[in-house]
Amino acid sequence: MKFLISRLQLTVFFGLLFSTPMVLAVIETYEFDNDVQRQRYNVFIDELRCPKCQNQNLSGSNSPIAEDLRRELHRMVLEGQQDRQIIDFMVSRYGDFVLYRPPVDKNTILLWGAPVILLLVGLITLVLYVRRQRAGQQVIALDPLRLTADEQARLDQLLARFPVESFSGKNQVNE
Amino acid sequence: MERFKLFIPLAIFFAMAALFFVMLQREGYNPQELPSALIDRPVPTFKLPALKDAGRQLTPNDLKGDVALLNVWATWCVSCRAEHPFLMHLANVEKMTIYGLDYKDETREAIRWLASLGDPYKFTINDEEGRLGLDLGVYGAPETYLLDRKGVIRYKHVGVLDEKVWREKIKPLVDHLHKEP
User: Fold this and answer.
1) Domain spanning B38-179 has what CATH number?
2) Partner residue opposite B140 with nearest CB, options A52, A69, A97
3) B13-39 pLDDT tens trace
């Protein structure tokens, strides 16, 4: 049945697949004096989050609030405001929430620190694991027949139950 | 014992799943809610006309003097209509001072709304452009700010203010603020 997917269906599928982002992107025309301004504006609308439609950035949202904020950003960029000023403008109104990259403080330290901590835990585990393996191999290399106390005790026990005389040779144990 | 170690990741998974589930089920949990960046800060400066009297210019000074609510509303806001009767109740029965902020709205429509549904507001700030709304960090009407006597924002509620929110969240704070000098 799989083979019955027509070329038309495939076309529609891929058409929809690739057209979606275009449909979602908001079409607005803002004029800029130069490319630097345009780039700054584009970075800001990508990096800032829409307060209403959470998980969308300002560029992707067509909610009225996002529209207003894009207008404000455009104004601030044209006025030549510094990045710091623009970020402060947003944060003073909507909190750190609007930043996709929140600053490091006591609320976000776990968020920022977790990857480092996890990496360290992973590295330590790895080192310990490798060391233990190596140590084990060394013991075997030094003395392939060395038994632990438990193993020795069990061996003694078995030997006591089956006196050595009953075996004529090592290989016959398995028979 | 070694074998049980294999189940540790699974156990962690279940523990986290349980934790998230409980958090989601918590009453009154709203993932849309943002902590206001303006708590304990004065209302941003503005100079805007009153809705019913365009000649009267309002400033943050007009919001001082009383423990009060500042309610952000608009005629295009459906939830605001649902909220309105309770605001009437607060104004008339609980004798709460409420200021309105008409956010990005048609002035004539808004005046008609207050005429037909009743006016719980001491006065309403007409923010046609939405500048004050933007400075307040309004992201969805209705929103209600609790102001102390000095006009400092002490609490923000996003969404419909109803009996339950009033009783559980706002009333206790209002009582507390009344005791403040």
Assistant:
1) 3.40.30.10
2) A52
3) 999 999 999 988 887 677 677 767 788
